[in-house]
Amino acid sequence: MFSNEVIFLGLIFLAVILLSQALFLPVYSPQRANTALIRKRLKKLSANAGDTSIEVSLLHKSKLEKLSNFGRKLERIEFIENLSYRLELADYKMMGHHFLILGVLTSIITAMITWFYISDPFMTIIVFVITAFLFNMKLNRDTNKRMDTIEADFPDGLDVIRRALQAGYSFTDAIKLATEELEGPLAKEFKLMFVNINYTKDIKRALLGFIQRVPSVSALAFASAVMVQRETGGNLAENIENLTRVIRQRFKFRRRVKTLSAEGRLSAWILILLPFVLFAVIYLQTPSYVGELTGTEAGHKLLMWGAVGMTIGGWWISRIIKIDV
Description:
Elements: H1 4-28, H2 30-33, H3 35-48, H4 58-66, H5 69-75, H6 78-89, H7 96-118, H8 121-166, H9 171-181, H10 185-200, H11 203-213, H12 217-232, H13 236-260, H14 262-285, H15 291-294, H16 297-321
Helix pairs in contact: 1-8, 1-14, 1-16, 3-11, 6-7, 7-8, 8-9, 8-13, 9-10, 10-11, 11-12, 12-13, 14-16
């Protein structure tokens, strides 16, 4: 059975690692940092279109209709509404309040188990926070993974639409062809856009919904190109071809930036993990050296302040190596 000191150090280590993951997450997925900016741009576009709100999808609307009155009221709360939006970006099937209840209940259960074995209120709180943080980190990772997949497939999808337009297809039929030719989450999003076009008979509204579901610079550029072409005219196939070339060059540059910044990310992880590795080595070789640090209240305070300092340092390093593309 592990001692309370070892468990305490393990929890601090896990907390620092999780916080570091949260700090470095935008570095690995730059498009996530643009989501707020794109949503602001979407509100302006929807205001110009005369819409006060944009439906995320017909699927989301059908989910709301299946809920009880109490569930729909919960979904109107701003925090839960934003959580539902994030769940839809990650392609989760549950609603926001379901995910929140699941996370809270799981955190409470793990905290109760910790209290049963350790009976330490401070450690119990740490376990509760870490469990809740794991749910949030899992959601962020799944969202970023799905958005990265869509971004990677987007140029190929635009190529399918361009060839269809050059062959004489209408824009709606070109979208339908893309849903048949492509696979993965991008095909699903194009299919939802095709359904929205047929349902609302409004391409602009369907494009705004597409941007809402795929908050990326590439999707915004595609929707803007289509809307501008429909208002002013022009060769849409040629515009999409130019857009595809720009997106591919942007991906190429992003990969180059990621390669060049790999040394900085590796240095960040080394700086974060090095104190724990050294502490473990000293603890295994001469445990008496760390007795004052792990066995006294003053030592626990020093460890906590050290964790805070490492978190601030990790945030500072992430700001240095973060490059928006």
